[in-house]
Amino acid sequence: MFSLLLIFSLTFLISFAGSVHPGPVNLSVVQATLRRGLSAGLRLAAGGCVPEIVYGLLAVQGVNLVEQVPGLFNALRIAIVPVLLGLGVLTIVRARRPTMPKPERQTGTGGRDSFIRGLVLSLLNPQLLPFWMVILVSYHGHPGLRVSTLARQAAFVTGTSLGAFGILYLYAQLTHQHRTRIERYLHPERFDLVMGLGFVGMGLWQGLRLWVF
Question: Do the Cβ atoms of 183 and 35 come closer than 8 Å?
């Protein structure tokens, strides 16, 4: 029982800390919360943590599963480039359009779209699978952390997803609580423009990494 709690707690903390840095899902949670309210931000966060379960399970199965699907990792690395570029362009275009007074801030609107957006952005993150595989390899050096049984696998996968949701939930809550202060210095349209440029920059950087490496 102690080992299960240890695996879950440590994995939760690693997932939480590993998701702190700004990325497509984090920024999208902030944007959705500003434009559509806390509910939309939390739905996007929920969608963003589902792939943590998928990649956690794949990592648990080990390198053999990856080898059975040749080119999976490279395919994900390539697919994220047009997704980020397209999302960036659409966000910039929307930021430059005249907007009606606060139409998108109604709580509960765009719930399904928000969930799917978070799901896709996180699913196309090529770093998740190798990240969790490296963590599992490091776990195996310690008997109490070795993810060998079904119960330990469940504790590990639960930790990956709840840790990611925890930091995204925090992003959404902080954005919701400080919305007035944020909008005072950064209007939603201006934030969309910054976000759009950020997505384009991330897409170009990922493309450059593919080209160079």
Answer: no
**Lowest mean pLDDT, pick from 24-33, 37-46, 129-138, 184-193:** 184-193
Please report, for the chain, the start and end positions of each structural domain, with discontinuous segments joined by +.
2-212
Residues contacting 58, CB < 8 A, separation 6+: 65, 66, 129, 132
166: helix, strand or coil: helix
DSSP symbols for 28-85: HHHHHHHHH-HHHHHHHHHHHHHHHHHHHHHHHH-HHHHHHSTTHHHHHHHHHHHHHH
- Mean pLDDT, range 129-152, rounded to an integer: 79
CB 132 within 8 A of CB 66: no
Percent of the chain with pLDDT over 90: 15
- Residues 129/73, Cβ–Cβ less than 8 Å: yes
Is the separation of the CB atoms in 190 and 95 below 8 Å?
Answer: yes
Per-residue model confidence (pLDDT) at position 189:
63
